[in-house]
Amino acid sequence: MSNDLQIILAGSFVATACGLLGCYLILRKMAMVGDAISHAVLPGIVLAFLFTGSRDSVTMVIGAGIIGVLTTFLIEFFHKKGKLQTDASIGVTFTWLFAIGVILISVFAGKVDLDQDCVLYGEIAYVPIDLWITDAGTVMGPRVLYISGTVLLIILVFIATGYKELFLTTFDPAYATAVGISTVLWHYLLMGAVSITTVASFESVGAILVVALLIAPPATAYLLTEDLFKMMVLTTIIGVLVSVSGYYLAVATDGSIAGAMATMAGLFFGLAFLFSPTEGYLVKKFRKEKAVMH
Amino acid sequence: METFLDFFSFSDPNVRYVVLGSILITASSAIVGSFTFLKKKALVGDAVAHAVLPGVCLSFILYGEKNPLVLIIGAFTTGWIALTLIDFISSKSKIKEDTAIGLILSVFFGIGIFLLTIIQKSGNAAQSGLDQFLFGKAASLVGSDLITFGLVAVLLLVAVYLFFKEFTLISFDKDFAASVGLPIRAMELILTTLTVLAVVVGIQAVGVVLMAAMLITPAAAARFWTEKIKVMIWLAAIFGAFSGISGAYISYVAPSMPTGPWIVIVISSIAFFSFFFAPGRGIIQRLLTQKRIKKHIVDENILKALYQLGEEEKNFFDKRTIETILSKRTLRRDLLIKSLKRLKREGYLKHSDGLWFFTTEGKNKGQRVVKLHRLWEVYLIQYLRIAPDHVHDDADTIEHVLTPELEARLEKLLNYPSTDPHKSEIPYE
Amino acid sequence: MITQVENPIVEIHDLTVSYDKKPVLWDVDLSLPKGHLIGIIGPNGAGKSTLIKSVMGLIPNSSGYIKLFDQDLSKVRGRISYVPQRETVDWDFPASVIDVVLMGRYGKLGLFKRPRKADIEVAMDCLRKVDMEAFKDRQISQLSGGQQQRVFLARALAQQADLYFMDEPFAGVDAATEKTIIKLLREMTERGNTVIVVHHDLQSVPQYFDWVIMLNMRLVASGPTESTFTSEILQETYGGKLTLLSEVGNLLKQGRFPSREQTEVKN
Lengths: 294, 429, 267
Known about the structure:
- The structure holds three protein chains of three kinds.
- By secondary structure, chain A is mainly α.
- In chain A, 79% of the residues lie in helices and 2% in strands.
- In chain A, helix 3 runs antiparallel to helix 4 (86-107) and helix 9 packs across helix 10.
- The relative contact order of chain A is 0.16.
- Chain B is an all-alpha fold.
- Chain B has a two-stranded antiparallel sheet.
- By secondary structure, chain C is of the alpha/beta class.
- Chain C is 36% helix and 22% strand.
- Chain C is built from ten helices and nine strands.
- In chain C, strand 8 (211-216) and strand 9 (218-224) form a beta hairpin.
- Classes of the chains: A mainly alpha, B mainly alpha, C alpha/beta.
- Chains in contact: A-B, A-C, B-C.
């Protein structure tokens, strides 16, 4: 596999996993909670590094998964017990956790193989040289590809098995409760899944640009279709397109790949916003003018 | 310790600049942030903060050096565009506001990072330090920077001072503000502009990534201490300024540390302390209040039981054993004893030879609880049409809640009934 | 005037429901007969929706208990259907009409199982009953208010329950839809199902319901329409607020009193 292809593949895995979960986040009006989780898992990642002394992925995913769910819990705790309005509760919680993460990185700069750049925009460019070598010395290929591939698989299985429950608890939580489906359980499962995905994506695209992949492709797909399943398929396609075009944009300009991916994700959204056949702003405007003229 | 003294003696003019600048910057973001907090638009501030990054980078690319004024103009422009886009997207399509915020935030930031990496690789020597906008560095404030940012901060404070009344009204009740003829759109425009400006100067100290904390957290913390908007804004400013000084100090003693995260840790600690310990709204205070109320209810119930025993035996001041009280009111023995001791301390009961009895105050208080209980039963039956055998539990709660004012209204409304539905006499003084 | 019945299908005992410690319904105590079309009537803020939400376990009770089919809700969920207010969901949601109606089968399907052919047939059947068969694949964002309500009704029918709770099914629907819905509800009760409806329009009450529950923060009356829906009881339900009651409610909220004494744990 060529280096280009490896990077693009890693980007596509990450973008797809994020986008699929993002569909549920934006439909639940929880986009900003996704944003908060992606920031808040940082201290979990750094601590996992410190304790295991390596990029042992399993510990990291578990550690950060717990922190992600904890973040959701804290936001609700301050909101319900402290009577703090939700937006402020989100803002206070994630900035605090993220700040702890950045400080931990500075304090343990020597011991932790992480730096602020990695936090901001990841190291997807290093995918081809960061190889998984088994104890026996066999070279298995890029480590990140395995991690992001596994997480994508987990997310696919999660959504496939819980499709119906996720659908109902998202669309009509009161009705879901009435027929005996636990909205709380599915809420936390989804948040756990978002945490795992953010952690796995973190090395590739950084903590903040994950948000672009969580929100922009599903938001674009949302403007193009009115069917949840199609929306998820479109999100996947857009995710791959973002990865491919972002990569080549970065190569052409010598900029950050993750930054370029976010830029392209924004561009695709802009196109859909203006030209979507059903929802596009210009399309609707044009139709109105036509209607007036007739 | 030495560095501490060095820093806080302010003998070094650089330190003076930095401290003054940090205070102005953090306090003014906290003040403007208070209004976005009250408008429940706290996360919009987060989006603007991230969105200024491409502006900073673009103005650098166009101008070729780090001129504070040029950077401000660039940051201001993209911050403004971001805000307008959020409004536009959420009002002109089915995309909801939270999605629009997250989208603009992350995409603008992504573009910013993209441009920043291009600048860094372009080899322009002047770019060094541009990445300080990411996590902030208060100590790098010097001379001309300080004058520019200080001026903007002063401008913010003056504007808030002038429009205080209007901002308060549009944050509290926009429709009412419109109905009294306030130019809502203009006011919102000014407030939005101030928010963007606050972000633009604030990123000097905390950086774009954590700027949201400077807008949201001081206001959230201050809200827990007061119900008055003026006090709240002052407190937010003080909390913000305090975290600003701390940041400047950390930046001074440990130049390799990013300042922003430390400022955020300081202000978050203040906020968490407020959430838990503030009087009135704090979580601990609420738990304590509930506990106090529970005790109060137990006490009143014991006085009520003693009064009822007195009624049965036509003697209110008889001495009673703990068993007798327990026969009237089921209660855990240890709770009962604690409560009896409390009532004695407060002068409602007396105690001799293991027996307990009323003082006059105690009898009066017990009588009032009994009266309220029976009055409420009458009220429930007459006004809520509840069956006589269902009113007791409810009255058991309400008897502890009614204020003397409501008591008087209840008596009048029911026209001083002499007995309750179970034919028990209602005792009046 | 509260008529209690033998072998009730719904039995509510001394129910108090609070939002943020402030009671919005006080001491409701009633029982309802099987096979009737029952209307819940009262002014705005009377607690009508609160009552059925509380029965469905969507908001916690401060005190009292509820029995359905003489059992706890958790044991009989499969026999009960709930139709929330139309505005509570986001109709921009990417779903088609048949998707929504199929949700009615989810409770019976259980975890992880997908709807089968038989479920789809039930769903189609229900769509036919509400005259929406032709709209099966239409996106829900394109429906009118009345059509949205019909879809919700079809979803409830697909549950094949015995007892139905509907929150304002007639709010904001066109006359044709209202007619279709009431006809369906009548058929359901004729088959022995019980339908309980939160209703707003006083004019149609005698025509629609054979049993009414009159609420205004407390239960004013519950009984057969002809004897209960009288001008005197209407006057009591709609005439004036119980200011004392709501002030006491506010006190409970501010003082953060527990709205029932839980302190004195029995020995």
